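Translate structure to sequence.
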């Protein structure tokens, strides 16, 4: 597995920070502009947008110094947006990092602007996997990056406690594609955890299930998700604990929260072990992504992160151990040999580090 040049890794880190800064700095869409409008001998600022339809909002009098400061700051953000587009283009074209397909990028960008990640939801699945090349500074094969859906997860406790909510989620999605519709939940017809458009592109919201199995077939209401509910899933709490900031290489960069790559790799082994029947194709993709991330973590000298994530999962009980054993056994022989070698080395180093700490603390 090849790493990318240090210069490109530095550019990616800069893009992550600048994209995050921009998401905090304006209440106005960068798709619009401030316009100065004379009215009866005085000038006023209005904010004008042309998409999805032309509209103009009153902002305030032109002589107000606070408003003038905001207008100037907005211009800087717009200028930075153009500069960030160039960074994205450089990282995709010259560094060879993967960009999402345009539609997935538009969907994630719309949800980011609506506040999804500000409300501590996490992008999961293959679209999240697409961010790891930049995050880790390696090149990942394109076949592992293809998808026809986007998945998001949030702890129910977070959704209930943030005391804030997105706009109606179906409206956010319809602004991207008017054919999006709600899919009624299979057992809770009044709730929706999935949305789908005319092209069968599907968006799903998930939440960890650490309680009784009776919750598995019921949609969990999520107060912060703009009317959407979430499907409870086992093992998901492990995946979305301690997410990392990354950027999707779409347009000027979309700041997102994604699972840490080491948790993603371990979780994919568990998920692969639990897939059966018609899900065999997805299982192969899970195993492929897990193997690639283990290799990437080895290449970038992050074996200790992998060891700690694997040990945490292993120590959660026999059901977790059985899933991990089965996931490892499902790997192709050459890939399994590599994963076993990396994991063994990582766990040995973690034990040595722990033993040394214990001796020093006595």
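Result:
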């Amino acid at each position: 597995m090849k790493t990318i040049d240090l210069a490109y890794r530095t550019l990616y880190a800069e893009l992550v920070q600048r994209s995050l800064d921009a998401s905090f700095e304006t209440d106005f869409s960068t798709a619009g502009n401030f316009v100065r409008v004379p009215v009866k001998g005085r000038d006023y600022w209005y904010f004008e947008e042309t998409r999805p339809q032309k509209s103009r909002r009153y902002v305030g009098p032109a002589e107000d110094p606070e408003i003038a400061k905001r207008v100037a700051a907005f211009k800087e953000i717009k200028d930075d947006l153009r500069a960030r587009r160039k960074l994205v283009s450089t990282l995709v074209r010259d560094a060879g990092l993967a960009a999402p397909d345009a539609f997935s990028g538009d969907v994630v960008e719309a949800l980011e602007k609506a506040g999804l990640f500000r409300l501590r939801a996490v992008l999961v699945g293959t679209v999240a996997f697409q961010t790891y090349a930049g995050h880790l500074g390696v090149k990942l094969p394109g076949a592992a990056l293809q998808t026809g859906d986007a998945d998001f997860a949030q702890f129910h406790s977070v959704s209930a406690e943030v005391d804030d909510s997105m706009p109606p989620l179906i409206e956010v999605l319809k602004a991207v594609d008017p054919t999006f519709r709600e899919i009624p939940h299979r057992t809770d017809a009044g709730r929706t955890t999935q949305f789908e458009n005319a092209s069968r592109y599907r968006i799903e919201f998930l939440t960890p299930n650490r309680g009784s199995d009776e919750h598995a077939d019921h949609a969990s209401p999520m107060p912060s998700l703009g009317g959407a509910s979430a499907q409870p899933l086992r093992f998901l709490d492990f995946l979305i604990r301690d997410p990392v900031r990354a950027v999707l290489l779409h347009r000027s960069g979309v700041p997102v929260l994604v699972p840490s790559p080491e948790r993603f790799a371990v979780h994919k082994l568990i998920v692969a072990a639990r897939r059966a029947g018609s899900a065999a194709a997805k299982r192969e993709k899970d195993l492929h992504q897990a193997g690639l991330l283990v290799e990437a973590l080895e290449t970038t000298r992050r074996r200790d992160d992998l060891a700690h994530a694997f040990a945490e999962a292993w120590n959660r009980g026999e059901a977790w151990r059985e899933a991990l054993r089965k996931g490892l056994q499902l790997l192709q022989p050459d890939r399994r040999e590599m994963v076993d070698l990396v994991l063994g080395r990582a766990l040995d180093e973690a034990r040595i580090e722990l033993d040394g700490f214990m001796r020093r603390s006595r």
